């Protein structure tokens, strides 16, 4: 094998190295071949003494992979710390803004759930209040019948009316509650889908 063939083959096998590093090895082996030739060896004999370019390239690459990573220079660490300190007003503001945006989003979601359940809650409160007033009116009418029958009868009628109101509002609360459970599930699925789309876009 001629010198040019050896160098060309070795260059091709070391193409994964950076240009400067690759040229350094090529120059080294080129000079080594030249030294053998100066000592009286023929060109092919000098190349043969050096060895097979494939084995040489494999040894170079394996030794390079075994080297530990270069430590970060102290000046670079100090520069990073200085940049972090000097840039803290900027990145600190950005972090604070991101936290505020996240909190605002959480509050908006909670408000949406509160608004959704306001109507069933109002029906439920009205139903419980009607039941309480119906019981008070019914018990009070029993006492008033012995004192003033007309007032007692009016009080009893009011208690029966409130009992009817309780039954109607309780039924409405149950039906509206079921509807709003469906609305809540739909809203939650929509939110989950929205976050999944955002993650998909980022990925």
What does this structure look like?
By secondary structure, this protein is mainly alpha-helical. It is built from eight helices and no strands.
Summary keywords:
single chain, mainly alpha, rod-shaped
Give a nutshell description of this structure:
With 203 residues, the protein is mainly α. Helices cover 88% and strands 0% of the residues. The chain is rod-shaped, with a radius of gyration of 44 Å.
H/E element order: HHHHHHHH
Q: What's the N-to-C terminus distance?
A: 52 Å
> Helix/strand-derived class?
mainly alpha
Would you report the number of β strands? 0
Question: What are the low-pLDDT stretches, counting only 5+ consecutive residues below 50?
Answer: none
Largest β-sheet summary: none
The averaged pLDDT comes out at 78
Q: Please tell me how large the radius of gyration is.
A: 44 Å
Q: Estimate the helix proportion, in percent.
A: over 70%
Tell me the strand percentage band.
under 5%
The coarse overall form would be rod-shaped
Count of individual helical segments:
8
Q: What is the fold's blueprint, element by element?
A:
Blueprint: H1 3-13, H2 19-38, H3 43-50, H4 53-66, H5 74-86, H6 88-116, H7 118-147, H8 149-202
């Amino acid at each position: 094998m001629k010198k040019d063939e050896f160098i060309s083959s070795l260059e091709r096998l070391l193409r994964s190295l950076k240009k400067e590093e690759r040229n350094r090895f090529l120059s080294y082996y080129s000079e080594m071949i030249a030294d053998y030739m100066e000592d009286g060896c023929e060109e092919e004999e000098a190349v043969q003494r050096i060895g097979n370019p494939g084995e040489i390239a494999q040894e170079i690459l394996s030794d390079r992979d075994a080297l530990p990573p270069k430590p970060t220079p102290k000046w670079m660490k100090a520069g990073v710390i200085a940049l972090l300190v000097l840039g803290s007003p900027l990145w600190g503001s950005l972090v604070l803004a991101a936290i505020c945006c996240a909190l605002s989003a959480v509050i908006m979601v909670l408000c949406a759930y509160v608004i959704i359940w306001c109507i069933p809650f109002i029906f439920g409160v009205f139903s419980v209040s009607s039941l309480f007033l119906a019981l008070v009116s019914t018990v009070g009418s029993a006492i008033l019948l012995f004192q003033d029958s007309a007032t007692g009868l009016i009080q009893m009628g009011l208690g029966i009316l409130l009992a009817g109101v309780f039954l109607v509002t309780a039924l409405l609360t149950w039906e509206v509650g079921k509807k709003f459970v469906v609305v809540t599930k739909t809203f939650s699925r929509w939110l989950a889908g929205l976050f999944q789309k955002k993650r998909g876009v980022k990925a």
